[in-house]
Design brief:
Aminopeptidase; alpha+beta; 11-stranded mixed β-sheet
Length: 304
C-alpha cells in the first residue's frame, strides 16, 4: 500500500476506533506518517466492490528478532478474518527475521482493553499479554504552569540539529535498556523516526544535571487533531541522574510550552511494569490514567 491509500486506511481505522472506544483515536496525518516509514510493510484486503475491509502492517525492529504487527478488520465484516490477517502478518514477520539470521520471531502487538474482538483474535493466534500501557492525561490549567527546575538542573528546547539529536539518541539508548521491548536503534533510525512526519511534528527538549546532558523529552502532535493535546512520545533520564528532579522539570517545561501553543491537555503512555516507577512520577505532576492498552506477544520459530 502507498500514501495514496491513506484516506481508505484512515476510514477503516476510524470505524474500528468508534467500535472499540466510541471515538476516533488515530488521524489521517498519523496514517500518512506510518506509510512513509521505511521499516513497515503495509497490506490491504479488499472486497468484490474494491472497498478496503482489512488492513495490517509488519516491521522488524532493527536487526533484532522482534517483529511488530498490527491488524484491523472493518467492524461490519466477518470477525473471523482477524486471525487470518494476523497469520499473514506473522508469516511475513518470520521471513523478515529469517533474512536477518534469527531462528525465531518475537511478535508484538497491542490492543485496547475494551477491544474484545481484537483480543479474541490475538488469543486465538496464541498471543499472550506481556504488560499493560496506561495512557496518562493532564488537563492544562489557566494560568500557565510555572516550570521551575531545581538547583543544578537546566532544561532547554533544542533546535533538533545533528549534535543535539546525537546527544538525545545516546541518552535514549542508555536510559531505556531495562524497559520492556527495548531494542537498540542506530542514530540513523532514531533520526528517521524523529523526522518521519511533517516539519514541526516532533520537538526535542534536553536536560542537564550539573552541566552534563542527562535527560530528553520528545513531544509530538499525535493528539492535536483529535484532542488538542500535546503528546510525550519519549521522556527519559540517565540512571546516575535520577532523583534530581530532571524528569519532572522536563515534563513541566513541556506542559508550559504546550499551554503557550494553545493546547488544552498533554498525554503520554507508560508501562505499568516500568522499573523506574514512572507511573508515580506522572501522577505527581498531576496526570491521571484514562485508557489501558495491553501489549501482547508471541514467540514463533522460523521452522514453523
Amino acid at each position: 500500500m502507498t500514501i495514496e491509500d491513506a484516506p481508505a486506511i484512515a476510514g477503516l481505522l476510524l470505524a474500528s476506533d468508534i467500535a472499540a472506544l466510541g471515538r476516533s483515536d488515530y488521524s489521517l496525518t498519523e496514517v500518512e506518517g506510518d506509510l512513509r516509514r521505511s521499516d513497515l510493510e503495509h497490506t490491504g484486503w479488499y472486497d468484490e466492490s474494491g472497498a478496503l475491509v482489512c488492513y495490517g502492517w509488519v516491521g522488524r525492529e532493527g536487526q533484532s528478532s522482534k517483529v511488530e504487527v498490527d491488524a484491523y478488520v472493518h467492524p461490519e465484516k466477518d470477525p473471523a478474518l482477524g486471525p487470518q490477517v494476523l497469520a499473514t502478518l506473522e508469516a511475513r514477520g518470520l521471513e523478515l527475521v529469517a533474512e536477518a539470521g534469527h531462528d525465531h520471531a518475537l511478535c508484538d502487538t497491542a490492543a485496547y482493553r475494551q477491544d474484545e474482538r481484537t483480543r479474541g483474535w490475538l488469543a486465538t493466534r496464541g498471543f499472550e499479554i506481556a504488560t499493560t500501557f496506561t495512557r496518562m492525561r493532564i488537563d492544562l490549567p489557566r494560568p500557565a504552569i510555572a516550570a521551575e527546575p531545581p538547583a543544578g538542573v537546566v532544561v532547554r528546547r533544542s533546535d533538533a540539529g545533528e549534535e543535539d539529536l546525537r546527544a538525545a539518541h545516546d541518552i535514549d539508548e542508555k536510559a531505556f535498556t531495562e524497559h520492556y521491548g527495548h531494542v537498540p536503534r542506530t542514530f540513523e533510525k532514531f533520526r528517521e523516526r524523529f523526522e518521519e512526519q511533517m516539519a514541526g511534528w516532533s520537538a526535542l527538549w534536553l536536560g542537564d544535571v550539573d552541566g552534563t546532558p542527562a535527560g530528553l523529552l520528545i513531544g509530538t502532535q499525535q493528539f492535536v487533531e483529535e484532542e488538542n493535546a500535546g503528546y510525550v512520545r519519549i521522556v527519559g533520564v540517565l540512571r546516575d541522574a535520577r532523583g534530581r528532579g530532571l524528569a519532572k522539570a522536563l515534563l513541566q517545561t513541556y506542559f508550559a510550552a504546550q499551554q503557550e501553543d494553545g493546547r488544552t491537555a498533554v498525554l503520554l503512555h507508560v508501562d505499568q511494569g516500568n522499573v523506574t516507577n514512572a507511573l508515580g512520577l506522572y501522577e505527581s505532576v498531576g496526570m491521571r490514567a484514562v485508557l489501558q492498552i495491553d501489549a501482547w506477544t508471541k514467540r514463533v520459530t522460523t521452522a514453523g
